[in-house]
Amino acid sequence: MAELTTLARPYAKAVFAEASEKSALDAWSDDLAVLSAFAADADLAKVLVHPSLTSEQQAQALIDVCGDKLNEAAKNLVAVLAENKRLALLPEIAELYEELKAKLQNAVDVVVTSAYELSDAQAEKLAAALKAKLQCDVRVTSEVDESLIGGAIIRAGDLVIDGSLTGKLSKLAEAMKS
Asked: Structure pTM?
Protein backbone atom coordinates (compact mmCIF):
# COMPACT_ATOMS: atom_id res chain seq x y z
CA MET A 1 0.00 0.00 0.00
CA ALA A 2 2.76 2.44 0.93
CA GLU A 3 4.56 1.62 -2.32
CA LEU A 4 1.44 2.42 -4.37
CA THR A 5 1.08 5.71 -2.52
CA THR A 6 4.71 6.55 -3.19
CA LEU A 7 4.31 5.81 -6.90
CA ALA A 8 0.99 7.66 -7.18
CA ARG A 9 1.97 10.80 -5.25
CA PRO A 10 3.90 12.60 -8.07
CA TYR A 11 1.02 12.05 -10.50
CA ALA A 12 -1.54 13.26 -7.95
CA LYS A 13 0.54 16.36 -7.24
CA ALA A 14 0.95 17.10 -10.94
CA VAL A 15 -2.79 16.75 -11.56
CA PHE A 16 -3.51 18.92 -8.54
CA ALA A 17 -1.11 21.61 -9.75
CA GLU A 18 -2.75 21.56 -13.20
CA ALA A 19 -6.24 21.70 -11.67
CA SER A 20 -5.28 24.57 -9.35
CA GLU A 21 -3.69 26.53 -12.17
CA LYS A 22 -6.75 26.13 -14.39
CA SER A 23 -9.29 26.53 -11.53
CA ALA A 24 -10.68 23.11 -12.40
CA LEU A 25 -10.52 21.27 -9.07
CA ASP A 26 -14.06 19.89 -9.26
CA ALA A 27 -13.75 18.91 -12.93
CA TRP A 28 -10.60 16.92 -12.16
CA SER A 29 -12.34 15.31 -9.18
CA ASP A 30 -15.06 14.10 -11.51
CA ASP A 31 -12.59 12.86 -14.14
CA LEU A 32 -10.45 11.03 -11.59
CA ALA A 33 -13.52 9.46 -9.99
CA VAL A 34 -14.61 8.08 -13.36
CA LEU A 35 -11.12 6.87 -14.25
CA SER A 36 -10.49 5.23 -10.89
CA ALA A 37 -13.88 3.50 -10.93
CA PHE A 38 -13.18 1.96 -14.32
CA ALA A 39 -9.53 1.17 -13.52
CA ALA A 40 -10.62 -0.63 -10.35
CA ASP A 41 -13.02 -2.88 -12.30
CA ALA A 42 -11.58 -6.41 -12.23
CA ASP A 43 -12.36 -7.22 -15.88
CA LEU A 44 -11.01 -3.95 -17.24
CA ALA A 45 -7.93 -4.20 -15.00
CA LYS A 46 -6.98 -7.41 -16.83
CA VAL A 47 -7.14 -5.57 -20.14
CA LEU A 48 -5.11 -2.65 -18.80
CA VAL A 49 -2.18 -4.92 -17.89
CA HIS A 50 -2.46 -7.39 -20.76
CA PRO A 51 1.05 -7.94 -22.14
CA SER A 52 -0.02 -8.24 -25.79
CA LEU A 53 -1.45 -4.70 -25.83
CA THR A 54 0.71 -1.66 -26.40
CA SER A 55 0.50 1.23 -23.96
CA GLU A 56 -1.45 3.21 -26.59
CA GLN A 57 -3.99 0.39 -26.91
CA GLN A 58 -4.35 0.14 -23.13
CA ALA A 59 -4.88 3.89 -22.84
CA GLN A 60 -7.37 3.89 -25.71
CA ALA A 61 -9.29 1.00 -24.12
CA LEU A 62 -9.73 2.98 -20.90
CA ILE A 63 -10.62 6.17 -22.76
CA ASP A 64 -13.17 4.30 -24.90
CA VAL A 65 -14.83 2.78 -21.83
CA CYS A 66 -15.08 6.21 -20.19
CA GLY A 67 -16.76 7.61 -23.31
CA ASP A 68 -17.23 11.36 -23.46
CA LYS A 69 -16.92 11.77 -19.66
CA LEU A 70 -13.26 12.85 -19.88
CA ASN A 71 -11.71 16.11 -21.00
CA GLU A 72 -8.51 16.27 -23.08
CA ALA A 73 -6.25 16.77 -20.07
CA ALA A 74 -7.62 13.61 -18.43
CA LYS A 75 -7.07 11.69 -21.66
CA ASN A 76 -3.47 12.95 -21.68
CA LEU A 77 -3.06 11.72 -18.11
CA VAL A 78 -4.28 8.28 -19.17
CA ALA A 79 -1.77 8.24 -22.03
CA VAL A 80 1.11 9.19 -19.72
CA LEU A 81 0.10 6.60 -17.14
CA ALA A 82 -0.20 3.92 -19.81
CA GLU A 83 3.18 4.81 -21.26
CA ASN A 84 4.75 4.45 -17.81
CA LYS A 85 2.77 1.26 -16.99
CA ARG A 86 0.97 3.03 -14.15
CA LEU A 87 -2.73 2.75 -15.07
CA ALA A 88 -3.33 0.58 -12.01
CA LEU A 89 -2.45 3.60 -9.85
CA LEU A 90 -5.56 5.56 -10.87
CA PRO A 91 -7.58 4.76 -7.71
CA GLU A 92 -4.65 5.78 -5.51
CA ILE A 93 -4.04 8.93 -7.58
CA ALA A 94 -7.69 9.90 -7.19
CA GLU A 95 -7.55 9.37 -3.42
CA LEU A 96 -4.37 11.43 -3.04
CA TYR A 97 -5.81 14.16 -5.25
CA GLU A 98 -8.92 14.37 -3.07
CA GLU A 99 -6.73 14.67 0.03
CA LEU A 100 -4.80 17.55 -1.55
CA LYS A 101 -8.05 19.22 -2.60
CA ALA A 102 -9.53 18.84 0.89
CA LYS A 103 -6.38 20.29 2.44
CA LEU A 104 -6.60 23.32 0.15
CA GLN A 105 -10.26 23.79 0.99
CA ASN A 106 -9.55 23.25 4.71
CA ALA A 107 -11.89 20.28 4.82
CA VAL A 108 -11.60 16.66 5.83
CA ASP A 109 -13.63 13.60 4.92
CA VAL A 110 -14.53 11.56 7.98
CA VAL A 111 -15.73 7.97 7.78
CA VAL A 112 -17.67 6.77 10.80
CA THR A 113 -18.07 3.02 11.08
CA SER A 114 -20.63 2.06 13.70
CA ALA A 115 -22.52 -1.00 14.78
CA TYR A 116 -25.82 0.68 13.92
CA GLU A 117 -26.92 3.35 11.44
CA LEU A 118 -26.27 6.88 12.71
CA SER A 119 -29.24 9.21 12.95
CA ASP A 120 -29.01 12.62 11.30
CA ALA A 121 -28.81 14.27 14.72
CA GLN A 122 -25.95 12.00 15.79
CA ALA A 123 -24.05 12.67 12.55
CA GLU A 124 -24.51 16.44 12.93
CA LYS A 125 -23.39 16.37 16.57
CA LEU A 126 -20.34 14.29 15.66
CA ALA A 127 -19.50 16.60 12.75
CA ALA A 128 -19.70 19.66 15.03
CA ALA A 129 -17.43 18.04 17.64
CA LEU A 130 -14.90 16.99 15.00
CA LYS A 131 -15.00 20.43 13.39
CA ALA A 132 -14.05 21.99 16.72
CA LYS A 133 -11.33 19.38 17.35
CA LEU A 134 -9.80 19.39 13.84
CA GLN A 135 -10.45 23.09 13.14
CA CYS A 136 -11.66 22.52 9.59
CA ASP A 137 -14.85 21.69 7.72
CA VAL A 138 -15.92 18.09 8.18
CA ARG A 139 -17.80 15.89 5.71
CA VAL A 140 -19.15 12.82 7.48
CA THR A 141 -20.02 9.57 5.77
CA SER A 142 -21.18 6.58 7.75
CA GLU A 143 -20.85 2.84 7.37
CA VAL A 144 -22.39 0.01 9.36
CA ASP A 145 -20.34 -2.91 10.68
CA GLU A 146 -22.39 -5.03 13.05
CA SER A 147 -19.26 -6.89 14.23
CA LEU A 148 -18.32 -3.79 16.27
CA ILE A 149 -21.12 -4.70 18.74
CA GLY A 150 -21.43 -1.08 19.87
CA GLY A 151 -19.70 2.27 19.60
CA ALA A 152 -17.91 3.54 16.51
CA ILE A 153 -14.59 3.88 14.72
CA ILE A 154 -13.86 7.34 13.32
CA ARG A 155 -11.32 7.78 10.50
CA ALA A 156 -10.22 11.24 9.40
CA GLY A 157 -7.15 10.91 7.20
CA ASP A 158 -4.40 9.47 9.42
CA LEU A 159 -6.39 10.01 12.61
CA VAL A 160 -8.27 6.93 13.83
CA ILE A 161 -10.42 6.99 16.96
CA ASP A 162 -11.57 3.53 17.97
CA GLY A 163 -14.47 3.85 20.38
CA SER A 164 -16.01 0.52 19.43
CA LEU A 165 -16.88 -2.09 22.00
CA THR A 166 -14.91 -4.66 20.01
CA GLY A 167 -11.84 -2.40 20.12
CA LYS A 168 -12.18 -1.83 23.84
CA LEU A 169 -12.53 -5.57 24.48
CA SER A 170 -9.44 -6.22 22.38
CA LYS A 171 -7.45 -3.66 24.39
CA LEU A 172 -8.67 -5.20 27.64
CA ALA A 173 -7.71 -8.70 26.49
CA GLU A 174 -4.28 -7.44 25.45
CA ALA A 175 -3.79 -5.71 28.80
CA MET A 176 -4.75 -8.88 30.66
CA LYS A 177 -2.25 -10.95 28.68
CA SER A 178 0.68 -8.68 29.47
From this structure: 0.70
